[in-house]
Specification:
The structure is a single chain. Helix 1 crosses helix 3, helix 2 runs antiparallel to helix 3 and helix 5 packs parallel to helix 6. About 25% of the residues are buried. This protein has about 240 residues and is α/β, with parallel strands linked by helices. The chain has six helices and seven strands. The mean pLDDT is about 95. The chain has a seven-stranded mixed sheet, sandwiched between helices. It has two domains: about 90 residues, Up-down Bundle (Chorismate Mutase Domain, subunit A); about 130 residues, Rossmann fold (3-Layer(aba) Sandwich). Helix 4 links the parallel strand 1 and strand 2.
Length: about 240
Amino acid sequence: MTARPPLTPDELLELRNRLDDIDTGIVDLIAERQAVVTAIGEHKLKTGAPLRHFAREREVIDRGMARAESHGLPGAVARDVLETLIHHSLSNQETYKLVQSDHGAGKSALVIGGLGRMGVWMSRYLDMVGYHVDVADLSDEETPFHRVADWQSRVDEYDMIVVAVPLRPSNDILLKLAELKPQGLIFDIGSLKSPMRTGLQALADAGCRACSVHPMFGPDELGLSGRHILFVDTGDPEAL
């Protein structure tokens, strides 16, 4: 059997151009899919239908795997692609629902540590649901939100204060907030609570509306669908 000769430069270029066209088509189809997802999301919002339809998701994945296998591809390839698309579709529908909810309309929030990765996530989320968001951070990175230099003198301006700084300085900030006794809701988003025990107790002793929150996901997540958040009662059940 005679071995096939190597491709000529022109043949290789032609194949690469064809591959580029295929990739462009894939992206175009993903965009078309997302447009359909948006229309479905609008329907769910108007009718009160649940965001997730697990049987439908399973049906889409099973059909895709069977299709891939019929072309001689591993079913796992289709499964991974479709699970990613479904995740983004759910995030797209969730974002639309949150924006329409206008939950924070007319309210303001301060995110202390708003330029850290989870601080950025919190700021964007609160902005998406209608809050006016200010951030306080030692970093000089750019942000679309209004920066507050002396947040300690302005705590009573906010309906919500989120402490999103690293664990080590979080306790000191909570202690300072306990001294200032702001009227709004206060919560941290630290992954460990023991380093903030004295700060959280000080807030409770001061009569502040406070709780503690632990998002069980990282800052790369697009939405909350399928994600878990722990809410910790620190002495004021109504704050939850």
